[in-house]
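Kindly go through one protein, given below as sequence and tokens. The question is how this chain folds according to its tokens.

***
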Amino acid sequence: MNAWFPRITLHSLVIVISVLTYVLTTRVERERRPPSIAIAWVLGMIAVPYLALPTYLLFGRRKLPRKVLPWSGIGSHCVHWAEDLIESFGLAPCAPASVRLHRDGDDSAGALFATMAGATRRLDICTYILGNDAFGREAMQIMMERARSGVQVRLLIDGVGALQLPRRCFKQLGGAGIETAIFSPLFARKTQGPRNLRNHRKLAIADGARLWAGGRNIAAEYFTGLEGAKPWRDLSFDLLGPVAAAAASQFEADWVAAGGRPAPIATKAAAIQAGATSEPPPSGGRAQFLPSGPDQAEDTVQALLIDACFHARERILAVTPYFVPDAALETALRLAARRGVKIDLCIPGISNHRLADFARNRALRALGNAGAGIHLLPYMIHAKAVVFDESLAICGSVNLDSRSLLLNYECAVVFYGASEIVWLAEWIQALIPEAQPFDNRAPGLWRDIAEGLLLTVAYQL
């Protein structure tokens, strides 16, 4: 017994130190976490402190004290509650925009290549994946042609996505004069913060005035399809106007954070001014750039979605490849359904992420029991969009899961124009006839336990 006593005392001390480390760092940095995530960390430190403490120190931070470039463009008078909310985050105001939404991969590819080829001074591209395939090589060829013609071309790619691209491709790009930066590389400390905070933003910005964005990575499966397979269904858009300047400002912040050489002050000012003063056609709608992630003081997209659920009166249409919301968003959706808002959620029956498919079932059952329509599509869909009533739509890189909403660097554009809202609503509604309803039966005991255990780490999926 005496031999065991020092070991028990030491083990207890490790547990106390682990829990205190979590409590103190959370309080000092004022980290706000959902209760389920906080409980998971604490229980992990009690059960397996030797594993949980190092994991927390490596991956536990969610917000970073990173300075985001302040918006210095033209302001606006808010006419929608969402505009007011987004501006309160210190983000760019709503502005006129000439928007073109892309119905399929061919349409999107044409818009992407036109945006890239149309750059005359600067071309900024941010992507999670740049495919080592025919489509990716075609995109790289256009980048190199622009660089050789004197355009400043900058490519920002996430560290995980960069692993899929051979080193020779980076050498080829550099040889053509393209500047490249890898965001949070897995095997080097160039970017501030834990390695699990990934940059999932997808942007192509020409001269700070034209923006191409959405859910598509620059790889074949998102546009033309891999050999022998159909392309994934996805959404993207391009627009002209001051919203592009806000995206350019965000790209600059990401570029510098990844170790890229900052653009000269005069160049940045000229790009923002060009985007802010570029006037779209009078028939254009109104839109607002909305980034989210560790670089934002608030969980911006999450906050907007929750607020919009409580503002909704008639309908909520949503499409997402992965649906693992935290308790707050799930509750907001469930309560909207219970008070009579018609909710239609379109997701793939089987996605490319099987763990996410398993973890989503508890939230889907809760929504289904509240009266929401859950539509399982017979193919992989990678689109991310939500439409609220007739007054608000969101489209971009943000999935409706905890990792995307609470950990990743993401971006979306909020649309206020009637034509964009109608277009997105019709695009989502056209998916429903192809879908099968979700089986809402209660799970067995072991499946229920497995789902609960998986949900404790779902925010990392």
User: Anything to note?
Assistant: Residues 4-59 form one domain. The longest helix spans residues 4-28. DSSP finds 17 helices and 17 strands in the chain.
